[in-house]
Design goal:
Blueprint: H1 2-33, H2 36-40, E1 43-50, E2 55-59, H3 60-73, E3 76-87, E4 90-99, E5 102-113, E6 116-126
Parallel strand pairs: 1-6
Antiparallel strand pairs: 1-2, 3-4, 4-5, 5-6
Length: 127
């Protein structure tokens, strides 16, 4: 019986780790598409968004609108991941978002809430 229990715990841990990576990968795919709607699926109830002209904390609906406006003004061509990782269960990604109007150093920080990884901060700094 202990072997079965150990197998179940190991399987659960592996699947949990895969799910958190999947969330970060989903965020990266949403950035590549410039899709505020897809990105909003990963946003926490409140999120800090940093843009070249403003920074603020927004609820999920406001954040979706702010991101939609940003992507509408900056049509995405490519998102290059420079670095991504996990630090004590908190995931992060740093990259460059190339748009028709310029490039932006992009940072995403996620944390665990309710058993899933959600975005707590996303910023776009003009390069």
């Amino acid at each position: 019986m202990p072997k079965v229990l150990m197998f179940c715990v190991t399987a659960w841990l592996l699947l949990s780790a895969f799910a958190t990576v999947k969330n970060l990968d989903g965020v990266i795919e949403a950035l590549k598409k410039g899709s505020a709607t897809e990105l909003a699926r990963y946003v926490d109830d409140t999120v800090e968004i940093g843009l070249p002209d403003k920074t603020g904390t927004y609820n999920k609906d406001q954040a979706t609108s702010v991101l939609r406006d940003f992507f509408a003004a900056n049509s995405v061509r490519l998102f290059e991941v420079k670095h991504k990782g996990d630090n004590e269960g908190k995931q992060f990604c740093v990259g460059v978002l190339h748009t028709q109007s310029g490039s932006f150093r992009t940072q995403v920080f996620m944390h665990t809430k309710g058993g899933r990884q959600v975005i707590r901060l996303i910023s776009f700094q003009a390069q």
